[in-house]
Design a protein that fits this description.
alpha+beta; Aminopeptidase; nine-stranded mixed beta sheet; seven-stranded mixed beta sheet; 12 helices; 26% strand
Length: 413
């Protein structure tokens, strides 16, 4: 075991207890006075405990059972993903943590990754509010070792976009060796009780005047509406319009569309059709004479709004900054619905610096369990290091983006 392994000194866990169903692996107590870990191979088998726990746990919307279950039924099944959901209980038997993991094979080597690692913006465990934040690194290592014991074929953990802090609580997994993710998360704290007051504090007089002028000019081109579809059929239609506009915008810039595959589109439509998932889904658009010129697919958990997919037209209306106008309307909706934080999620785009006052640190946890796992992680670690170096330099970032656009143009038929 390498120096970067989960824990160089931990004891081997006891054998699995007998009598467990074939689809369920239950690992004996990691420490009789500390934690017991149970690992499930199906989201359905732990659904009741998960849904009860998520209502009080520190987590993001992307760790809700309904969200990940919808993903598993669409994207996960299409990609052959094998879920491994770890439920961690304390000595009293109380659930204190859930780690929604999955198995991914890279060059034939099995890794533990986060469930929906590519599609979810933030990752991390669901944590009980009373979790002891001073839990030693060795105990966290033993929990991970117990998870590995349930699936011996796994050679490494490769957990990306992991929040360092989850709803104000330090992520226990930070105790394990990690590196900074190339990008950060960004959010706007919605202070005060009124959007207009907040907007006046955030924007200069000249900027507000320019925004009003842009809106008037957009209104001169047709009837401008901020729309939130209420029926499922209207939600499906607006989602299709937003994804199509996003795809065109990305294609024109030579960027691969992460929402373009059939299974990912199916996932977002599945969220509309699933009543449990739909309760947190928020789709909106700014339209001119009924045509979408800017839009957003987001989610709400407690008093936080997660803006996940944004789109804006490249057509004639783009001259009047419809994306900014839509953002204003969306923030106005947040104030009307007692939202306290507007999370623009992952990415270091320039416009976020103009609005965001909260920056969310993300880390990548790439931990080998065996020497084979160590070797299998090297390409990812090198790639991460190069990305961090490029993104830290505006000059290199500009050159990299330019090269990517050129390459995509040459490869596009």
């Amino acid at each position: 075991m390498s120096q970067n392994a989960v824990s160089p000194t931990m004891d081997s866990p006891a054998p699995n207890r007998g009598g467990a169903p074939a689809h369920l692996s239950v690992v004996s107590s990691v420490d009789e006075t500390q934690f017991r870990v149970s690992v499930y191979q199906s989201l359905d088998d732990c659904a009741v405990a998960w849904r009860l726990f998520e209502s009080e746990a520190r987590a993001t919307v992307f760790q809700r059972h309904a969200w990940l279950n919808a993903w598993m039924h669409t994207v996960g099944c299409a990609r052959g993903i094998e879920p491994r959901i770890a439920l961690v209980r304390n000595a009293a038997g109380d659930l204190v943590m859930i780690l929604p993991l999955a198995i991914e094979r890279t060059l034939g080597v099995a890794h533990f990754i986060w469930l929906a690692q590519d599609e979810a913006d933030y990752h991390g465990p669901l944590i009980h509010p009373d979790w002891n934040t001073h839990t030693p690194r060795e105990e966290i290592g033993r929990i991970l070792t117990a998870i590995v014991a349930s699936t011996p074929e796994v050679k490494a953990f490769s957990l990306t976009k992991t929040l360092a802090t989850i709803e104000g609580m330090a992520n226990p997994l930070q105790a394990i060796k990690h590196a900074a993710h190339p990008s950060s998360g960004h959010a706007i704290t919605l202070t005060g009780d009124c959007f207009d007051t907040f907007y006046a504090e955030m924007r200069s007089k000249s900027t507000r005047k320019r925004d009003r002028q842009r809106r008037r000019r957009l209104e001169e081109s047709g009837e401008v509406e901020f729309r939130i579809p209420e029926t499922q059929s209207d939600q499906h239609a607006m989602l299709d319009a937003i994804l199509a506009q996003k795809a065109l915008w990305l294609k024109q810039r030579g960027i691969v569309d992460p929402f373009g595959s059939a299974e990912v589109k199916s996932f977002f439509h599945h969220l509309i059709d699933d009543q449990s998932a739909r309760s947190t889904l928020h789709i909106s658009a700014l339209t001119v004479d009924g045509d979408v010129v800017a839009g957003n697919v987001g989610f709400v958990r407690n008093d936080r709004f997660y803006a996940t997919i944004g789109c804006v037209t490249d057509g004639e209306a783009s001259r009047h900054s419809p994306g900014t106008i839509h953002l204003h309307e969306l923030l106005r909706w947040c104030y009307a619905n007692n939202i306290k934080a507007f999370d623009l999620t992952v990415g270091d785009e320039g416009y976020k610096k103009d609005w965001c006052d909260a920056h969310l640190e993300l880390v990548d946890i790439r931990v080998p369990v065996t020497f084979t796992g160590y070797l299998s992680l090297l390409p990812s670690r090198i790639k991460d290091r190069i990305k961090r170096h490029i993104k830290a330099s505006p000059y290199l970032l500009d050159k990299a983006l330019s090269a990517r656009r050129t390459l995509r143009t040459l490869l596009t038929p």
